[in-house]
Amino acid sequence: MDLSLTDEQVLLRESVREFAEREMRPHVRAWDEAQHFPVELLPKLAALGLMGIQFPEELGGAGLSAVDYCICLEELARIDPAVALSVAAHNGLGAAHIAMFGNEAQKRRFLIPLASGRALAAWALTEAASGSDAVAMRTSATRDGTSWVLNGSKQFTTHGLHADTLVVMAVSDRSRGTRGVSAFILERGTPGLRAGRKEDKLGMRASETSELVLEQCRVDDGQLLGGEGQGFVNALQVLDAGRIGIAALSVGLAQGAYEAARTHARTREQFGQPIARFQSIRDKLVEDARRIEAAR
């Protein structure tokens, strides 16, 4: 298997790395300390095509490959994994669910703004008592004529406060278990939809995570995504495709940590010499580099 990058992929890596160094590195500490989600960065990410990496060009995306997607996330995470996590959640969860299972009308209405970076996506599955355990899901969707009424709450929703478009899973037929969960596309500003508590996280604090509350939230039948009863099944398919993005993010985070450690070892002196000259330190750095490359 040839794991070398093409010339185009090398250029992509260099472009995203230069962007991250210029637009992100000077602000990483301030964003983290303030728990600031950098909405001001989103238009710049969009201009580089990073808000629609794998989506077709005719739908507003960059039309790149899965390998290209991993390159982009790795380079962003090398500087700030919080930003990389937001890009991954937007591309690989909320927008991806619509791209994979939306009908043409839904793609035109919702995916084009998301892929072009004019809108931000969120994806709401997890609740206080459920995640992959669909049977424990409490958020409900009740049909009312040509509409659905949603009630419940979601936890740990990335972009819960700022998302323009949200994909929400809810139980539409409790008697059918995992086949009784449906997915719905909601827009910010929909009556009955509001953000709840923002999580005070230990790390990746510039990536916004919050509770989502739905109280008599009404959506029309055209916002049912992927067919009634298919929400949980489709959600697992979305997660399957998204795992590779989190793996790439992890490699980038490790690379950034390794480079910081290497720089410190070259500049920190003990006993009249940089500690990078000590064999035990060199062994640790070499082993880290080897493991990172293997993971990549």
For the structure shown, list the relevant keywords.
4-stranded antiparallel sheet; Butyryl-Coa Dehydrogenase, subunit A, domain 1; 3 domains; alpha+beta; elongated; Butyryl-CoA Dehydrogenase, subunit A, domain 2; single chain; 296 residues; 10 strands; 8 helices; 4-stranded mixed sheet
Please, could you describe this protein's structure?
A hairpin with a 2-residue loop joins strand 2 (about 140-145) and strand 3. The protein has eight helices and ten strands. It has helices spanning about 5-25, 30-35, 40-45, 65-80, 80-100, 105-115, 230-265, 280-295; strands at about 120-125, 140-145, 145-160, 165-170, 180-185, 195-200, 210-220, 225, 270, 275. The strands form three sheets. Strands 1-4-5-8 form a four-stranded mixed β-sheet, covered by helices on one side. A four-stranded antiparallel β-sheet has the order 2-3-7-6, with no helix packed on it. Helix content is about 45%, strand content about 20%. It has about 300 residues and is an alpha+beta fold. It has three domains: about 5-120, Acyl-CoA dehydrogenase/oxidase, N-terminal domain (Butyryl-Coa Dehydrogenase, subunit A, domain 1); about 120-235, Butyryl-CoA Dehydrogenase, subunit A, domain 2; about 255-295, no CATH class.
